[in-house]
Design a protein that fits this description.
With about 375 residues, this protein is α/β, with parallel strands linked by helices. It is about 30% helix and about 15% strand. It contains nine helices and 13 strands. The strands form three sheets. A six-stranded mixed β-sheet has the order 4-3-2-5-6-7, with helices on both faces. Strand 9 and strand 10 form a beta hairpin. Helix 6 packs parallel to helix 7. The protein is elongated.
Length: about 375
């Protein structure tokens, strides 16, 4: 004998109305909290309230459960097969940040003039360079990731691909040892163009969010024209273009001229043009770092390291809503600004402080930096 169970229309209507009222109240509360609009609430033709899936209106990651015909909850379309809680992709989240050190690749001239020419104290350019590199890298390696590329790589005009030492933390001993053992030959040219091309290719291949720079230290006119073996054929136009290409790729170049204004040294105009092409010129008539002693070279290298290494902070993930974030430094909210505030680094994988705020970071005056992610339109207190 077949039995049927019927619910009177009035009772069913009361049940559905009650269920929808409860769900609408819950849904509107979620919408207010999460910044969604009313289009996120949907019901199907039977009167059941449908869940908000990843491809529907509403805020991804916040669930709006529905009811099955038996009174139970519908499966959550955002939930994994194991029934675990879905990952939120939008919500209020505060993350402490740690400083992101810069990568600084030293591109070091080892042409013949580095051993043939001498400074006022009768030391060769190479002698003061080895001592200055040792001191500068040792004192700054805690805040800067140093790497080394020397040119030429061998006698004449040859430049090998890659670098002598990868950019890395605590690289002082490795770099200093290699530089001291690499005394230039008496017939070495100055293949600046190919050295810059190799440096640019190396940095471009590094998949790291760190800001990247080149430090070009040289004492001679770029030679080895068109990559040939002539150590005296001037190659200045191509060298300038290689520095511009590095800047276009995102790698600015600081230029240090060793004994640049002595009669036997590098012409002032060429190094000025190099510094401007590298997008890091100094103020005044002399655009590059001009040094003529061990002390001046050590100071210049240290100043460059301090200038690049302390203003970027990495993000563990990109913000879900890039325009709805807040950055606080030592409890103070700072604005998004190029003059005195913060901006995103490449691909929004870091934030970079600018202006006086950056100077405070360089001086070690900042203690706590944090970023708060919010939903679209969410007011972050």
């Amino acid at each position: 004998m077949t039995h049927t169970c019927r619910i009177r229309a009035s009772a069913r209507s009361t049940f559905v109305s009650s269920l929808l009222s409860s769900l609408l109240v819950a849904g509107l509360a979620c919408l207010v909290a999460c910044g969604a609009d009313a289009e996120g609430l949907q019901t199907d033709a039977t009167g059941d309230a449908g869940g908000t899936g990843a491809g529907e209106a509403g805020v991804p990651g916040f669930d709006f459960p529905g009811a099955n015909s038996d009174g139970g909850l519908k499966p959550n379309p955002n939930q994994g097969a194991n029934g675990g809680t879905p990952e939120k992709v939008c919500g209020l989240e505060t993350i402490p940040l740690e400083r992101l050190p810069a990568e600084l690749l030293l591109v070091l001239d080892r042409s013949s003039s580095m051993v043939n020419d001498r400074l006022r104290d009768n030391q060769s350019h190479w002698q003061v360079t080895t001592t200055a590199v040792d001191a500068a890298v040792k004192s700054t390696q805690g805040g800067v990731l140093w790497g080394l590329k020397m040119f030429p790589s061998r006698t004449g005009c040859g430049v090998s691909p890659g670098v002598e030492h990868d950019v890395a933390v605590n690289n002082h001993i490795a770099i200093s040892t290699t530089v001291r053992a690499a005394t230039p030959g008496r017939s070495n040219g100055t293949p600046t163009t190919n050295a810059m091309k190799a440096a640019t290719a190396y940095l471009a291949a590094r998949a790291t969010p760190n800001p990247k720079y080149i430090l070009l230290a040289t004492d001679g006119e770029p030679t080895c024209f068109n990559g040939n073996a002539s150590v005296r054929a001037s190659d200045t136009p191509a060298a300038l273009q290689s520095i511009r290409d590095a800047a276009t790729a995102g790698f600015h170049t600081f230029v240090v001229g060793i004994a640049a204004q002595r009669p036997s040294g590098q012409p002032l105009e060429t190094l000025n043009a190099m510094a401007e092409a590298g997008k890091e010129p100094r103020a005044g008539d002399t655009k590059f770092f001009s040094v003529s002693s061990e002390t001046e070279l050590t100071t210049a290298l240290g100043a460059i390291a301090g200038q690049v290494g302390t203003c970027a902070f990495p993000l563990s993930k990109a913000p879900p809503s890039p325009d709805d974030v807040a950055v606080d430094v030592d409890g103070q909210r700072i604005l998004r600004s190029d003059s005195d505030g913060w901006q995103y680094g490449p691909n929004q994988t870091s934030i970079v402080l600018h202006g006086p705020m950056c100077e405070k970071a360089r001086a070690g005056e900042l203690k706590n930096v944090k970023i708060t992610f919010g939903c679209p339109g969410m007011v972050i207190l």
